[in-house]
Specification:
The protein contains 10 helices and 21 strands. It has 481 residues and is α/β, with parallel strands linked by helices.
Length: 481
Amino acid sequence: MKRFVNWMWSIGLIIFMLPLNVGAQVHLPEIFSDNMVLQQESKVKIWGTGTPQTTISVTGSWNNETVQAKVGANGKWIVELQTIKASYTPYYIDVKDDAGISIRISNVLLGEVWLCSGQSNMEMPVRGWLPDCPIDYADQIAQSSTSFPGIRCVMVKEIKGAKPLDECKGTWQLSTPENVPDFSAVAYAFAMHLNQNLNVPIGLIVSAWGGTNIEGWMPESYLQKYKNVHYNYDVNSNDGAAASVLYNGMIYPLKNYTLKGFLWYQGEANVWGWDGTYYQKQKDLIECWRKDWNLGELPFYMVEIAPFSYPLYGAPANCSPLIREEQLKAALTIPHCGLVSTNDLTKETEIAVNIHPSNKLLVGYRLCRFALTKDYGRISECWGPTYQTMKVNGSKAVITFDHVGKGLIPNSNIIGFEIAGNDRTFYPAKARIIDKDKVEVYADEVRTPVAVRYCFSVAQLGNLMSITTFPVYPFRTDNWK
């Protein structure tokens, strides 16, 4: 009888211990899945959880070197693997613990990895949101995906965090006609152009959520100095203006994933809550993310909010041009940044009804130009013309531009300019190119010009461009309220 009792006690102990052992087995976040892309020629971080004080061994098949780490008392571990030059050769990664539990990540490519974030214009898929929000050439983009087998994408699942989370959800997907329609259209267009130019695999981590404010993508520690920041840590809420919850749930869990840089398309939601702090918040966000990744001044390329009739939907008048102004200021003053202008990409039929312009191919192309110029040394121009100075010559104002490259495209019917005198009343203006970097602006109603604006309104389209087909950025020469 005693032997039977001892036997039953032993069985009970084993059964009791089994869940603990299983729960403590080596574990990887979903971001480490088959088909992933790792940053080439870098020390890439691999991390996860396991049984405290056990040893985790990680091997990459590209060089068969094994690195090890002890699991900490908190159950977490992290290692760094040295990667080699990019190629289309599929590799694998083996992760093992002391108990002999092994995980293999297959079909791993080495290439260039970019994190793409923001709100709905970054999230918007190749298939569009039909019928109201299509994407130009969506079917052709999806069908041509077989020509881009080196592009891989993970669309991070939307999740909010009341505090910084260790993991987010989403697995890597191949570039196929079945998968590509669900990829971010802007990110995929960027990747297509980059892949064509570099001929290396491109990895896209898309972490975006429509209708969200910039404050949602920043940690609370960076927001405490601002007034009127709205916190709502109810993770089940549909509150798109809540601060920090997206950073906690969709950025912080990725901060160890080795990247080449960031793409950012956001700002529309902040038009409704304009308070004059967007530039500083954009600067803080960039500083925060760069600190999180600890890889130096990683490139950060942004997209200007599109012309759209924001006041028709309750936004304060004239706040959208102020957001664009602050976006450009951030791009010009923060090291290793850039901004894609969109004032020529929105169709007139979209301005009042569609905040999601359908031409995402050119947005991706222009983002790629920044990367090719600043990060890969392949080309020499990426900026559109930016306002530099204004001089008054009688009844005409002469505007000089920077970043014109080989000059402005000849145009006999320039639209988008306004001019004002001392009464601060703006009138539609005529304009003509008088030099490679100069435009003369005038209107019959203004005898002595004091200020000039270009596309500095809610939804003004422009057509003044450089010879490299980059549009002039919206600007104003005044600082009037």
